[in-house]
């Protein structure tokens, strides 16, 4: 099969992922789901939903060819026992991702961890290849000076219990377990290689009141997006062509970062959380537009957003495809800025595969290696 045909087949494939959202009742699962997917702000009363009863099943279309079958599972003990017994095979089969939420202020940590071990054991039994994301939530309730220490301690416990759960399923002695829950552990973004399951385990400290929630969910979505290498290659070509410092590609409704490209100059930016901050800023801007225009919060609120910081930098965010927005940050200069906007508009046809599984031969050919015009030049793709 030719490279063009292979790329075409890859882009046409519709991907569905079963995502389990689990954790003790009151841990904040449904609130974070409302903030990420239903476009509520943390301060909005509607974002603080009541307890989920049994399983709240929703289908979230993310980009054109990724559908998340999101199972928000009630965390009351009776429901948890039911998931692990009568509904065990139904709940834990064919799972792509488990998102488990711990309330950092829970007063019964041992019981919480015991439930987590049971959940992981069931998951490994029925969906061994599933990826696991653990969110240590409500970290805003911890004093700033001790947050890192508290998170590291809880992360060590979770890693230990994860290893124990794997050992239970495989009926083997967990000789590889650390001797103490306070043992040194890697950072949350670099899982330990000490267990069979650990490469699929990531931990995040989160709060609905800052950008940490966007960071965690962007990492989750990033791992699920099909054709990610194609998107990254296309963004790199566009970034080099327009001489940008950085390009971010956002999903339209959630404003989570789907993919990004950074130049060598852009890598010098000292703010490591800038991507999540931009997600937060643009989503807040969208809410502001909705408030003053009276349009539904899930509707498209703006098409262009520009910001020019004198002789420092320029940036613009614009509607890119039906399902995405693109943000471009670049050196100052009016001619450079206008040229970049025109070239981004000209590049849209090459990213049409983000809108759905049906891809034109023109777009597939672009994926196979078509390039962009250089700085200052504007054109359209050849037919």
Overall description:
It is a single chain. With 383 residues, the chain is an alpha/beta fold. It folds into 2 domains: 15-223, 3-Layer(aba) Sandwich (Rossmann fold), CATH 3.40.50.300; 227-367, 2-Layer Sandwich (Beta-Lactamase), CATH 3.30.450.190. It has 11 helices and 11 strands. The protein has helices at 3-12, 29-37, 77-84, 88-92, 109-126, 147-170, 212-224, 228-242, 274-293, 334-347, 361-367; strands at 15-23, 55-62, 66-73, 97-103, 131-137, 201-205, 246-251, 257-262, 304-309, 313-321, 324-330. The strands form 2 sheets. The protein has a 6-stranded mixed β-sheet, with helices on both faces. Strands 8-7-11-10-9 form a 5-stranded antiparallel β-sheet, with helices on both faces. Helix 7 packs across helix 9. It starts with a helix and ends in a 16-residue tail after the last helix. Residues 172-199 and 358-383 have low confidence and may be disordered.
Please supply descriptive tags for the structure shown above.
disordered C terminus; five-stranded antiparallel β-sheet; single chain; Gtr1_RagA; 383 residues; 2 domains; 11 helices; six-stranded mixed β-sheet; 11 strands; Beta-Lactamase; alpha/beta; Rossmann fold
């Amino acid at each position: 099969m030719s490279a063009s045909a292979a790329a075409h087949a890859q882009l046409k494939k519709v991907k569905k992922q079963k995502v389990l959202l689990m954790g003790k009742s009151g841990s904040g699962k449904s609130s974070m789901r409302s903030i990420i997917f239903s476009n509520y702000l943390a301060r909005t009363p509607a974002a603080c939903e009541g307890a989920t009863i049994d399983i709240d099943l929703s289908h979230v279309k993310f980009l054109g060819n990724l559908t998340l079958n999101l199972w928000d599972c009630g965390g009351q003990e009776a429901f948890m026992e039911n998931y692990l017994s009568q509904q065990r095979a139904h709940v834990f089969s064919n799972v792509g991702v488990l998102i488990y939420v711990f309330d950092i202020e829970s007063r019964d940590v041992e019981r919480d961890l015991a439930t987590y071990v049971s959940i992981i054991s069931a998951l490994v039994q029925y969906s061994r290849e599933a990826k696991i994301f653990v969110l240590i939530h409500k970290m805003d309730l911890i004093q700033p000076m001790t947050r890192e220490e508290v998170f590291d301690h809880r992360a060590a416990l979770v890693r230990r219990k994860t290893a124990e759960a794997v050992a239970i399923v495989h009926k083997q002695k967990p000789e590889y377990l650390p001797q103490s829950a306070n043992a040194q552990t890697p950072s949350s973004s670099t899982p330990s290689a000490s267990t069979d399951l650990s490469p699929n385990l990531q931990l995040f400290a989160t709060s609905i009141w800052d950008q940490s929630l966007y960071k965690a969910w962007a990492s989750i979505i990033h791992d699920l997006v099909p054709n990610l290498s194609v998107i990254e290659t296309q963004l790199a070509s566009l970034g080099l062509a327009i001489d940008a410092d950085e390009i971010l590609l956002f999903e339209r409704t959630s404003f989570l970062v789907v993919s990004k490209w950074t130049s060598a100059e852009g890598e010098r930016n000292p703010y490591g959380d800038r991507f999540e901050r931009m997600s937060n800023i643009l989503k807040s801007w969208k809410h502001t537009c909705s408030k003053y225009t009276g349009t539904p919060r899930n509707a498209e609120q703006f098409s262009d957003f520009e910001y020019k910081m004198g002789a420092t930098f320029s940036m613009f965010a614009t509607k890119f495809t039906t399902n995405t927005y693109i943000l471009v940050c670049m050196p100052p200069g009016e001619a450079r800025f206008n040229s970049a906007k025109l070239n981004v508009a000209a590049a849209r046809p090459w990213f049409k595969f983000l809108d759905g599984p049906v891809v034109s031969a023109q777009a597939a050919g672009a994926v196979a290696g078509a390039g962009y015009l250089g700085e200052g030049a504007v054109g359209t793709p050849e037919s």
